[in-house]
Amino acid sequence: MIGIIGGYGSIGFEAAKILKNLYGYEIMAAGRKPDSMGLVKQSFFQDIEVQALDISDYAEVRQLLERCGTVINCTGAALDIAALADGIKGSKVKYADISENVFAAKKLTNKVAAAVFAAGSLPGLSALMPRYLAGQMEKPEKLNFSYEARGSFTAAAAKEYLEGLFEQDKYLMVEWKRGRLEPVCGTVLQEEGFKADRQVFPYFDREAGYLTDTLRLEEGRWNMVIRGEYTLKMLTSARELYKENPREAVEALRKASALDLLYGGCSYVKMEAELEGGKETRRMTVKAGSPEKLTGAAAAITAHLLHENMLPEGAYTLGRCEKVMPVMEQLLSMDSLVEVIVSSEAGSGLAEIEEEGEI
After folding, report:
1. Per the confidence metrics, is the pTM higher than 0.90?
2. Do residue 76 and residue 193 come from a single domain?
3. Is the same domain home to 92 and 19?
4. pLDDT tens profile 32-84
5. Among candidate residues 132, 177, 146, the one with its CA nearest the CA of residue 282
6. How many domains does the chain have?
7. Residue 357 domain-assigned?
8. Does 141 share its domain with 186?
9. 111 and 92 within one domain
10. Are residues 329 and 213 in the same domain?
């Protein structure tokens, strides 16, 4: 059985559908107030065990870990999995978490068979995409990566995003060139037929640093593309507001993104990695109907591979997993929800589609 903490939240629900409908697992969904879920979720979970769970109550969480062979935490709230694992009876835990939670990873005991953190789209798949492309090239030299989305922030996602603005290892408005970080200018693009601005924010974080070292890149640029006039307006004062009142800042970002979704069109997410080396360029594009669908798919793939012992033991983030191919093969082979396109371009400039799949 696979347990899903936050199983009827926006991300957990997407993961639950894939684990049950695609992989055929028996699952258990756990979270706060199961009676408050909507009719669509009630129908899906009708024949599935649902458990009320307070993640701050470690006795309750420990019972879930003992019952399920694999557990994924889709809440976005960090758990001290090391402290939880110390009190577990029986077999070792297989654990996946969409949050990065690097501090918990450092404290893990031998009670954990495997623990994969940042098991989502960004960070997570965002590192595996360039590594997958690099495996097909002789010498990668330059990487361009972009993440673009329109959707409504949950409270947990808004909190995680705002906290990311203060990470010591995250730098804004920079790119990697000639072995060091150099400043760049952001760009605001007006799009015909779209009311809001589209602004590009170059950034460099822990995952970007890992990729520059691992792939030995000469150049690299990572772009976060923000869409929506309400969200962009809120972000101009986000750092100051979050310092003064974190809860108010989280609620302001959540409301701004909801307004942009209401007036700006349908939700979507698109990630693109373009890797150049010599006379060859390889690209990978991943699209989904919402950020939650893509993160839920990544979490479900991670849980499936952990459950089947197809990922290494130990504690690590998904982006740094030694085995890239099992994850990418699952991503390329699914039937609905996410579109994946991989292409190559030789010196002649003619593009050849190598692989195309829909998740």
Report:
1. no
2. no
3. yes
4. 877 767 766 878 888 888 888 888 888 888 888 888 889 999 988 777 776 67
5. 132
6. 2
7. no
8. yes
9. yes
10. no
348 token code pair: 């002649």
Contact between 127 and 144 under an 8 Å Cβ cutoff? The reply is no
Domain assignment present for 353: no
Residue 311 falls in which region: left (phi positive, over 0), alpha (psi -120 to 50) or beta: beta
- If asked whether residues 221 and 317 sit together in one domain, one would say no
Q: Residue 271 domain-assigned? A: yes
Interval 273-318: pLDDT, tens: 999 998 899 999 999 999 999 999 999 999 999 999 999 998 899 9
What amino acid occupies position 196?
A
Whether 96 and 20 map to the same domain: the answer is: yes
pLDDT tens by residue, 270-279: 999 999 998 8
Give the CATH number of the domain where residue 82 resides. 3.40.50.720
| Residue range(s) defining the domain that contains residue 250 | 125-291+338-345
